[in-house]
Amino acid sequence: MTSKLFNAKTVGKKRALVGCGGVMKGGAFIAGWLGRLGEEMGDSFPDFFNGGMYLGSVSVYEGTFALANQPRTILRTWNNYVDGLKLVNIFNYFIGRQTVKLDYLTRIFKSDIAQLNTEAVLKAKVRPTYLVTDFDTNQTLYLQPKTSQEIFDFLEAAATMPGLSRKKIINGNNYGDGVFSVGFGIAKAIEDGNEEILILSGDPDLELSEKLIVRIMRKIHSIRLYLTGQHVQFRLFKNYGVQLKKCFKLARSHPEKVEIVAPKINRALTPLNSGRKTIRQNVQSGWDYGGIWLYEHGYINADKVKRRMPRDVM
Q: Which residues 6+ apart lie within 8 Å of 282 measured at CB?
C-alpha cells in the first residue's frame, strides 16, 4: 500500500476539505465520495476534517450534509430528486427563465423529503466556510453561518451561477458562486494553517481542456451575460478558468500537504447533464472511488472496498 496523506499516523494534524464544483456531473461524484466516507466512518466523520470545510459551487450541498452526518440523505437526494427537469431545465435557458433552480433544493432540504439537520451543522466543532462572490464589490467572501436561515441563504449564494440561477440578494447585496472571484478555497485553507488539505473535485479534467460543445456553451453564455447588462459577471465569467488554473497550480506546489481527489472519467457530456442514468453512474463512481481511497489510506480492509451502496438510497 502506498504512503498517503490523511492516514492514521497523521490523524492529529489540522485537516481541511476544499470542495470544488462541476454542477450536475461534479455534484454527483462528490455526493458519492462523501457519502461513502460518511457511511464507513460513522459518527467520527464530521470531525475528520478538523480544520474545516471550504466549500464552493455544488460542493456546498454535499459538504454541509457531511458535516450534519447525513450521508444517506445526500446519496438519496442525488439518486432520486435532482434528475430530469427537477433541478435543471435547460429549455428555460432559451426563454430567459431560471435554468438551475436552487430554490427547489432549498425547499426539499427544509422538507421531510431530504431535510437538512441544520442544528447538527451549527453544533459541529468546525462550521462550514462558504465561498461567495459579492458582485457589487467584486470581492470574495468567506461566510460561516450562525443560524439555520443563514445556512440556506449561504448555500444558495455560493451555488448561484449568473444567468443560470436567480439572483441571490442578501441584505441588499448581490451574491454568487465564489468560483468567479477566487476559483476555490485552497489559498484560504493554506492561509488558515491546515497541515493536510484534500481537494475534492467532481471534474476529471483539472486543466479545463474542455470538449468543444462545452467551450461553445461558455462562449454563448458569456455573450448573454454582456448583452443582459451583467458586466461584472461577464468579466468574472470570462476569467474564472484562469482562477481555477491558478488554484490547481498552487495546490500542486504543496505536495507535502495537499492531495487531490477527482474522478478518472466522467460520463456526462456537459456540466448540466441531468439524465437519471448518468447522475446515478457518477454517484456510484464517487461511492466506489471513496472505498478505494479509504483502503489506500488504511481506513478499511480490502474486503470492504466493494461494499454496495445501501438499498434505501437507491
A: 25, 28, 29, 32, 202, 263, 266, 267, 268
Cβ contacts of residue 225 below 8 Å, gap of 6+?
A: 162, 163, 231, 233, 234, 237
Q: Do the beta carbons of residue 207 and residue 147 sit within 8 Å?
A: no
3 lies in some domain: no
Question: What CATH number did the domain enclosing 111 receive?
Answer: 3.40.1090
> Is 298 inside any structural domain?
yes
| Residue 99: partners with Cβ closer than 8 Å, 6 or more residues away | 88, 89, 90, 92, 93, 164, 165, 272
pLDDT digits (tens, 9 = 90+) for 120-152: 999 998 889 999 999 998 899 999 999 999 999
Task: Tell me if 1 is assigned to some domain.
Answer: no
Is residue 57 within 8 Å of residue 22, measured between CB atoms?
yes
Q: Which three cell numbers stand for residue 63?
A: 459538504
pLDDT for residue 1: 37
280 SS3 class:
helix
**232-288 residue pLDDT tens:** 888 888 888 888 889 999 999 999 999 999 988 766 667 788 899 999 999 999 999
Give the count of domains, the chain: 1
- Three-state SS annotation for 164-199: CECCEEECCEEEEECHHHHCCCHHHHHHCCCCEEEE
Report which residue type is found at 256: E
CA 58-192-50 angle, 5° bins = 70
Residue type, 96: G
d(CA 128, CA 54): 6
Alpha carbons 305 and 180: distance in angstroms, whole number: 37
Name residue 133's beta-bridge partners. 140, 176
**Domain span including residue 58:** 8-309
Its pTM surpasses 0.85: yes
**Separation CA 62–CA 27 (nearest Å):** 8
